[in-house]
Amino acid sequence: MMRQPKVGATQSSPTLPTPAQGVRFTTPIIETPGIVVLASLVWRLVRLLVLMPFRFPVMVASTAAVVVCWWYLGWVGLSVLAGVLSVISLVWWRMWPDSYRYCVTWRLLAWWRHLAVYRRHWQPVLVISGLAESYQERRYLPRIRSVRCNDRADYVRVSLVAGTSPVDFEHRVVELAHGFAAPSCRVTVNGPRDITLEFPRHDTLSEPLDALPVPEPPDLGALPVGKREDGTAWKLRLHGTHVLVVGVTGAGKGSVLWSAIRAMLPAIADGTAQVWGIDPKRMELAYGRELFARYADTGESAVALLEHAVTQMQERAERYAGKQRSHTPTKADPFVVVVLDEVAFLTAYHPDRDVRKRSENAIATLTSQGRSVGFCVLAALQDPRKEVMNLRNLFPDKIALRLDEASQVDMVLGEGARERGAEAHLIDPTLPGVAYVRLETSPSPVRVRAAFVSDEDITAMADGYGSEVA
């Protein structure tokens, strides 16, 4: 007697595939004949021997010279050759040290760093940091093309995997820096699928900078105010832009302001440039107030100064309308820099709401209309939050000194700045003046350090140029 199924039960054949089960195709395994493998190895060896003189000419030539000398002259001749080369190297090093470092020292260091650091750790660092790509169960890595060295950094030239972009590396600069034991990493795009990774071997900004010499004549589009991480001069552009400087107390905002003013001194003296100062704390700019054509230290006087600047700017724009599109500093129409220390006092902290509103309107007007007619706003700020300063986007160039929080980095330098290596919240408190700069013309932040202008330097500046300004 057959057993009847229970009501509601469904029967299914155990041999039928389940709905979630699909057909999987696998690559067939084919055994390669031994003769093919041997031929492949022989071909690789022959190709290596043929290409080696072209890929490593110095090494091949040196090895060949040693072998020939030993074959014809024996060990004595080889010893004599080594002694002659040592004397030549010593004379070269003493007489032309720069040439010796470029041709010998840095090349040997690059060869060693290539083998011992980058080639050795390349695969694990890129895989762990997420820069290795996979396709059809195969892993593809960017290829190291060359390594160059100088006295401060290594430059690793890399060929990208097809389908990737330099942005992928820009978003992993922190991982790359730590992976190769470098203080930082910077990505430079050379061309399609061709980038250079810059790894400093030591922090070139660890030593403080004294006040820089006063330039003669000054270039208002490139004022020397400090040093960049690559060892070159940090030149700040003021003419034709506006600059926002943000940093906590003690981060070095005063160094940036006074270095910029110091670099402008000859232009201030000949009347082609003016500095108008607003100093609510009465502690920073007041020390050299003789250098300012106009000066304010209260909310009411600061608003009056800003509104006067707006009036002057609009009058100049009316004269320029239909006649010229850019400003050239002259005594009749000087370049005017409005320096605002602690701008948040005027935009957020002043008890009078009318003063806050008028200040915000005047700053917005200057920053949106002033740079084409020779007016620049150089503002310093501690707290970059929007409710404190909602005009950040009107400043094309931004400088982030030491900040309190990681989120503030993107507030100041723009979205994605931290992913490109701007770790302003991790700046050592013992390094005042160290900052990250993001310019209007480049999205990549650059690490810099401003020169320190001491009280004695400011006094000397006021004594030497203050009377001429007055």
Please explain how this structure is put together.
The protein is of the alpha/beta class and 470 residues long. It has 2 domains: 101-202, Threonyl-tRNA Synthetase, Chain A, domain 2, CATH 3.30.980.40; 223-469, P-loop containing nucleotide triphosphate hydrolases (Rossmann fold, 3-Layer(aba) Sandwich), CATH 3.40.50.300. The chain has 12 helices and 16 strands. The chain has helices at 34-55, 57-95, 97-128, 166-170, 173-179, 253-263, 265-269, 299-320, 344-349, 353-369, 407-413, 455-469; strands at residues 133-135, 138-140, 143-149, 153-159, 186-191, 194-200, 223-228, 233-236, 243-246, 273-278, 294-296, 335-340, 375-381, 397-400, 434-438, 446-450. A 10-stranded mixed beta sheet has the order 8-7-16-15-14-9-13-12-10-11. A hairpin with a 4-residue loop joins β7 (223-228) and β8. α1 packs parallel to α2, α2 (57-95) packs across α3 (97-128) and α8 packs parallel to α10 (353-369). 31% of the residues are buried.
Provide a brief overview of the structure:
With about 475 residues, the protein is α/β, with parallel strands linked by helices.
